[in-house]
Amino acid sequence: MEKMIRVFDTTLRDGEQSPGCSMNLEEKIVMAKQLEALKVDIIEAGFAIASPGDFRSVKEISRVIKDSTVASLSRTLEKDIWSSYEALKDAVSPRIHTFIATSDIHMKYKLKQTPEEVVESAVAGVKYAKRFISDVEFSCEDATRSRKEFLYRIIKDVIDAGATVINIPDTVGYATPFEMFNLIKDIKENVPNIHKAQISVHCHNDLGLGVANTLYAVLAGADQVECTMNGIGERAGNASLEEIVMALSTRRDYYNAITRIDTTQIMKASKLLTSITGVAVQPNKAIVGANAFSHEAGIHQHGMLENRSTYEIMTPESVGLNVSKMVLGKHSGRHAFKDRIVTLGYELTDDEIDAAFKEFKILADKKKQVFDEDIVSIIERDDQND
Ligand code: KIV
Ligand code: ZN
Description:
- The protein is α/β, with parallel strands linked by helices.
- It contains 15 helices and 10 strands.
- The protein has helices at about 25-35, 50-65, 80-90, 105-110, 115-130, 150-160, 175-190, 210-220, 240-250, 250-255, 265-275, 300-305, 335-345, 350-365, 370-385, and strands at about 5, 5-10, 40-45, 70-75, 95-100, 135-140, 165-170, 200-205, 225, 255-260.
- It has an 8-stranded parallel beta barrel, surrounded by 7 helices. The chain has a two-stranded parallel ribbon with strand order 1-10.
- The model has no long low-confidence stretch (mean pLDDT about 95).
- The structure holds 3-methyl-2-oxobutanoic acid and zinc ion.
């Protein structure tokens, strides 16, 4: 039986923490709607207590999102949890995500708390959160550098306190795939009540292993994966959503796992994020890079013409990419423009197309080539102004 893996997207929280990626309220709402269209199971909308802006974003996103769970991050402090609850109140499916560090180095130097105090604080935080919302996720920050015996103990206690999801973050991107596999396997074997909760993983990419570590965790039995679009996030970023999802779907035979994601919405989500943040994706980035589906070498092109699967393990269409890479510029007509809009996944009225086409022409006069990101940005801007 194939296992259903839940996709927890943290583009709007952990992703937003990366330099140059901060978003305003309107941009976050547009992005949240696209994540919902992508069918992510959980959208982490922000860290409600972090700032009034974050609080408002969680609140507004909670109001508009119907088909995904909306989560807000909180430390284990009552004031944080209360703020998350207040922000999440209107969500159809709210989740409080609370965390505390569990590694010796974090407990000693950052928290300045003993392990005993950390367990007490974690249990109290989960119990407090449960008073308001039934879906409570608990994260052991820096789990991969924590002592395993201590992890087993705190995980058991927070599950007894009511945590429904246990997240194992590789906060500093330190783990290797085999370590991640063994950690999840050991938690499953050594925490007596673990069957009462789902296991999640949250891998950072400092050594370029975020996606690999996540996939090994899935092989070991993880139920949920935490990730961001384009892999944005603190330092080297988080595990990238599109890479995890396409690895699971392309190698379904190997991972024996599926997700709910509508993969044809991936390119649109990626380009939307780029247009909002202005942070470009490297051309050779897997799945969403400009070169991910282009074939330059003559021998490859020849093979592709005979049979696409000679050099193509997934189709561009499966991630929502327009195959006929027609370049749009100032000489392009309304017909080609409309065609590209449809390929990008938008349904616009004739009047909306006319308005967007006018803006496109103005931009095309200034730029040699108009990219998909530019078109997405024109459409989304028009949508905001309506
Ligand atoms: O990387 C991390 O440990 C986090 C937690 C707050 C989940 O982002
Ligand atoms: Zn993180």
